[in-house]
Amino acid sequence: MENLIYFDNAATSFPKPISVLNATNDVIKNYCANPGRSSHPLAARAAEAVYECRSKLARLFDAEDENVVFTSSATHAINLGIKSTLRRGDHVLISDIEHNAVLRPISALAKRGLITFDIYRATDDPERLIRELASKIKANTSLICACHHSNICNLCLPARAIGHFCRKKGIVFLLDASQSAGCVPISVENDLIDILCAPAHKGLYGIPGLGFAIFSKSLSESGRLSTFIEGGNGMASESAYMPDFLPDRLEAGTLSLPAIVALSAGVDYVKRQGVDSISQKEKALCALLRRGLSRIKDVTVHSLTDGSILLFSVKGYTSEEFAQLLSRYGICVRAGLHCAPLAHRRIGTNEDGAVRVSLGAKNTPDQVRRFLTVCEKILSKRTER
Questions:
Q1: Number of domains comprising the chain
Q2: Looking at the DSSP assignment, which residues form a beta bridge with residue 214?
Q3: What would the DSSP string read from start to end of 168-198?
């Protein structure tokens, strides 16, 4: 494991900070009780840990503590955001770089005849994007979904411009921050985001099995949010219905306390490092990687700009074949379509997909240079044959 090069951070960040590992071990060993269900000391400590994480997320993303809703994943959070706000007959806009976490629930609702939707062309130019949105909205458009940062091409959409457009039009704005949370500054309040969805285990350095949706104050107080799942949560247990207030209205069942405590430590880590500092480091590594790959014969780089992700293909290999060869040298990347067929169609790699290198705060320039050396070695062996 010492020589392993992990370049799959867009799927799950690794290795985790020591502080995250210690926090996870501590909760499992010392107070892994059910928060909000009992009055004994362990349950009380568990409840405090949940509230502390909720509060940290609210501060990180400029939101209200009670509007942070924990889910099992970012996909769960996106489904929650979509299905708790849409009504029969609504029209939705999604971008042409959306992950299947957005495309599939929207497509399923449309197939059942409940909604209609259209796809808008994503761009990082605010003025062009707003013109595009304005040309696509209808009288019944009630939701616009935006992938904040593409998981294959580094395209980052101007959230604030979309937020202001949606607020003026009375349209709910859902931002999928799966690749940007912890890497790009985000403000629910200033960017006028109605629903911010993200996972714990990527740029926030938590562990898998947890995500969250953060709702704007205006949406949470609108009375519009319908329940997505129902069940016990320790609140208003005498009622057959979920409470009317957040987060309890949208949280049912036992929360993943170890994952919440790990996320709390992950948020602390990100704040110590600095979101801007992490972003700058990842961009510098990506630029080094791009320069190196561009000098290697038969390698085509597909990423639109530098960021934390670089997508490439190699002449004579499928993406899966080349990823397998890299794996033999202890290099972890991902190949294929990355659950984002719309984005691959956008950049012309939808037939076979491509190899994705995704960088994180723990990666180093030396790892990038070793990666480039391995790529050259693999291709030189092909030439020798």
A1: 2
A2: 68, 196
A3: HHT-EEEEE-TTTTTTS---TTTTT-SEEEE
Per-residue confidence at 242, pLDDT binned at 50, 70, 90?
confident
Cβ-contact 151, 338 below 8 angstroms:
yes
End-of-domain residue from the set 217, 237, 272:
272
111-140 pLDDT per residue, tens: 999 999 999 999 999 999 999 999 999 999
CATH of residue 261's domain is: 3.40.640.10
Q: Which residue's entry shows tokens 């190196």?
A: 292
pTM of the entire structure? 0.95
Residue 363 structure tokens? 């990666």
Query: Do residues 119 and 131 touch, judged by C-beta distance below 8 A?
Result: no
List, in order, residues 6 or more apart from 29 with CB less than 8 Å away.
Answer: none
Beta bridge partners of 381: none
Token couple for 255: 């929360």
Mean pLDDT of the chain: 94
Which runs of consecutive H residues, i.e. helices, occur in 254-364?
Answer: 257-273, 275-294, 319-328, 341-347
pLDDT in tens, 154-179: 899 999 999 999 999 999 999 999 99
In angstroms, the CA 106 to CA 148 distance is: 17
Torsion angle of alpha carbons 200, 206, 207, 211, nearest 10°? -10
Question: For residue 213, what are the β-bridge partners?
Answer: 69, 197
227 and 305 co-located in one domain: no
Q: What is the 3-state secondary structure (H, E, C) of 108-174?
A: HHHHCCCCEEEEECCCCCHHHHHHHHHHHCCCCEEEEEEECECCCCCCECCHHHHHHHHHHHCCEEE
Q: Residue with structure tokens 């926090």?
A: 23
Confidence at residue 385, expressed as pLDDT on a 0 to 100 scale: 45
For residues 200 and 210, is the Cβ–Cβ distance under 8 A?
yes
